[in-house]
Design brief:
Two copies of one chain form a homodimer.
Chain A (H helix, E strand, L loop, with lengths): L1 H9 L7 E2 L10 H17 L2 E3 L2 H9 L3 E3 L2 E3 L2 H10 L4 E3 L8 E3 L3 E4 L7 E4 L3 E4 L2 H13 L17 H15 L4 E2 L5 H15 L3 H6 L3 E5 L6 E2 L1 H12 L3 E4 L2 E4 L7 H22 L5 E4 L1 E5 L6 E2 L3 H17 L3 E4 L9 H16 L4 E3 L4 E2 L4 E3 H17 L7 H4 L1 H6 L10 H4 L2 H4 L11 H6 L5 H15 L4 H19 L8
Parallel strand pairs in A: 2-12, 7-19, 8-21, 10-11, 11-13, 13-15, 14-16, 15-18, 18-19
Antiparallel strand pairs in A: 1-7, 2-4, 3-4, 5-6, 8-9, 16-17, 20-21
Chain lengths: 499, 499
């Protein structure tokens, strides 16, 4: 299997950069989308946002917002100015320049599941995330070219919180060469991370600040609350020119209204409010409209994913983000607790929603289980198959007479076959998507070979990749460059989390 | 579990009739679609079709086609006349009128997997289809309102071929009330089936012929061959006013050219040629453009499903069918040999292709495994979840200020929740899709309850439905009405298959 895995590593760079193959769908009329936008401006003005960070409130109030206790009321002129300064294209820079990723209106970017406290696989079972597992997740993310940006997969909980950001940042720079993520967990940690990225990539301050080398996700605390670390993250990443993906996590029926339009209204309000703070902190800083909404089960309150509501929220979010002129980020997902048909089905449903909405960035696109509480290794492989299929779909088809193959029809007699036709022989090697985990053999052959289901084949595949993984020489160099900084900062006690 | 199953049977009639929620996507430019259409007319004229049935050749040659040996060359004027007479709307009639299904441009119809020699479930395992299994499949199809038309699921091979059509037709009329299928396996069997439908539903000849009560699928023998039973089926079903779904099974790289455009050209040629025969046999008889294409794996020749090529062929087929002004039929599918993540993923991929192509009828939408060689019971349940989700997506959303819920945002404090908000309480009961098999519980709760994966939950669900199934009184009446006919025809030796 290691041999097969090595083959898979070699298919890297087959797909990508990806562009959306299909036109975006519409959930609502353009008129109603405009009404939601206007209503969001009214909410910001009249109901306001609660912001727990004093510096953030001051930035907003000094620019015209009304501050009362911890509430901030933001005028529509401020929002409109923020939308004017927010960029609608930028390039995610990577340690290895081949992985730089241009973000514009047509871009389709995939990132693996992130933020899970746990991990699971069919060898070790389910457990709390640790450093080894976190690094194995990075190896998998680096090995498939349909993963365009790194994600925080599972949390390495065996590392102390004041030192964890060193390990998570160092591992990305050592093992991988793709655009990075960082958590916004307080100013001290953010500054450490920015320093590490600069040092490892040999960047001046000006070079670093000129492009987004690191992406963070800002989750507002729906409804209408921005907590201290999130507000600080907006300010710090904006000032450093690094990418903020402002993502209210709107679970309809729980933290968001029960209707699709209501959940979108809340989401839009929070994105626009946070965006205004972000652009005031540094006008023109890279930012994305984040949308990750689904619904809860109204009997139990449990979050559900891959649901019709998630698909509708995704398509509606795309309309609102485009209305606001912003690049946007969506997500796949599943509530399933294990590697089963539910997990695969829900994730595919959600993925297609992101295609229908023309999401520019699709996070949690591979490996999510349990509504994000666990990163699943076999699930990752299953989802990579889906992402590779979608990548294949993005390839344009040529519209020539030769492609139609009248000559092939002429060559093959009625009832014959095209296996050996000239038209086939000229094209067969690259004609079709080559699956990595799907088993296409007949039942008898498959049964005779042990009747191995997709879940177990996925185990062999990720194991082979992890075992064969070679840390790139450039990554070893970056790690060596970083070592003095980490040693020094560790000796100084690391960096505390934000209060 | 029987209790849960009974609850599920009770959700019948929640969804449907369905209309497509999203605009059709385009694979090719309209100009290129027009070129493929023209090229298909050229193939029919110059390369022709091989038709093994003399009556069919005569019908075509008497109307202007050139006949040479078993080849028939069909002029474009004949095709254009057939496209003029073919209807673009009709109603599938059902034994129980509540299940009548109006077919027009926006219609979305789902039918379960059909035509499998085998069946499998996690209780009895994989085996050849038999009468009991066939009837259990019918009970499942009748129990979910997202299944709009009956399908031949698995073949009851324990019944002799000369009597099998009596059992398959009688079981549909006894156990179910939805629009029916029939195999075109020779004139004698078709006439028996038409008699049974007339007798069971108390129809005059005129009433029967006026609407399609029975649907058959005509699979051309790609490339460019129509065999004896298929040609006879086209003629017999057309004359009886029953629906023919003309479906070349174009596996790109094997029975069809290796390119998407080439496979579409062959498919379009065969549909138009068979349609011309069909409309000459009875102008205006109900017909659908059938499209079921995918690709083979070029290393092994094995058919693959849920692939990018299948999605592209589906979207392109929709363009060609609409270009021809015909309602059309597509299909989902999977090559997986068991109830695993591959099976669920491939089927979801293919289903979304049918949505993107705005297929009017989606066959094999639930229960297919092994590229159609097996009907899987747990797979059926898994796929029904997908179809119900899609059905929920088809529900229009209202565009009102109330739906946006400014008042709800006003009511809920920052950081609060919407569980008890007035806006929620007024809507929560019907707001979200209610899953039938997805388990949304937390990992701990799910594990504590036995860690049952989706596959095993599906087993309990279908078992409960089958055990609780009550044959409708109207079905028992229809069966009693049919009994003398079946007894008589059985005594006469039944009906032989077509040569």
């Amino acid at each position: 299997m290691a041999r097969r895995a090595k083959q898979n590593i070699r298919v890297e760079t087959t797909y990508g950069p990806l562009r959306h193959p299909y036109a975006p769908q519409a959930l609502f009329s353009e008129d109603y989308i405009n009404q939601i936008h206007s209503e969001a401006l009214r909410v910001l003005e009249t109901l306001g946002l609660k912001i727990l960070n004093a510096e953030a409130r001051t930035i907003l109030s000094q620019n015209g917002a009304i501050e009362r206790d911890e509430m901030v009321y933001i005028g529509r002129d401020m929002v409109e100015e923020a939308l004017r300064t927010a960029p609608n294209h930028f390039t995610l820079k990577a340690a290895d320049p081949v992985h730089d990723y241009v973000m514009n209106r047509d871009t389709l970017l995939f990132a693996a599941g992130g933020g899970s406290p746990n991990a699971t696989d069919r060898v070790k079972g389910r457990r709390a995330g640790d450093r080894e597992t976190f690094e194995n997740c990075l190896k998998l993310q680096q090995s498939f070219d349909v993963i365009h940006k790194l994600s925080p997969s599972c949390e390495p909980q065996d590392i102390a919180p004041n030192l964890r950001h060193y390990a998570m940042t160092e591992a990305q720079l050592r093992l991988c060469g793709k655009p990075m993520f960082a958590y916004a967990r307080g100013r001290a940690q953010s500054m450490d991370i920015f320093d590490m990225v600069r040092i490892a990539n040999g960047l001046t301050d000006e070079e670093f600040i000129a492009d987004p080398w690191v992406t963070t996700v800002i989750n507002t605390n729906s409804p209408r609350l921005i907590d201290h670390p999130m507000a600080e993250g907006l300010i710090d990443f904006a000032r450093a020119g690094q990418l903020c993906v402002i993502t209210p996590f709107c679970l309809s029926g729980a933290m968001a209204p029960v209707t699709v339009a209501g959940a979108l209204l809340l989401q839009h309000t929070e994105v626009l409010g946070a965006l205004t703070l972000h652009q005031l902190a540094n006008p023109g800083a890279p930012v994305q409209y984040g949308a990750f909404g689904s619904n809860v089960d109204m009997k139990s309150g449990a979050p559900a994913f891959g649901t019709p509501t998630q698909i509708q929220l995704t398509i509606g979010s795309g309309q609102l983000a485009r209305h606001a002129g912003l690049l946007w980020r969506s997500a796949a997902g599943t509530a399933s607790n294990t590697h089963d048909m539910q997990a695969s089905g829900e994730t595919h449903m959600a993925l297609w929603g992101t295609l229908m909405g023309n999401a520019n960035s699709v996070y949690h696109a591979a490996g999510w289980l349990e509504g994000g509480l666990t990163f699943g290794f076999e699930k990752f492989i299953n989802d990579i198959e889906a992402l590779r299929s979608i990548a294949h779909l993005t390839r344009p088809l040529s519209e020539t007479t030769q492609e139609m193959g009248f000559a092939a029809l002429e060559e093959v007699a009625p009832g014959g076959h095209f296996f050996a036709a000239k038209h086939t022989m000229e094209r067969y090697e690259t004609a079709f998507y080559a699956p990595i985990n799907a088993d296409l053999r007949s039942f008898g052959t498959w049964e005779g070979a042990g009747a191995v289901p997709a879940e177990d084949r996925a185990t062999r595949l990720w194991q082979g990749i992890v075992e064969a993984y070679q840390t790139p020489a450039s990554g070893l160099e970056r790690a060596a460059t970083l070592e003095p900084f980490i040693t020094k900062r560790t000796a100084e006690g690391g960096a505390a989390l934000s209060a």
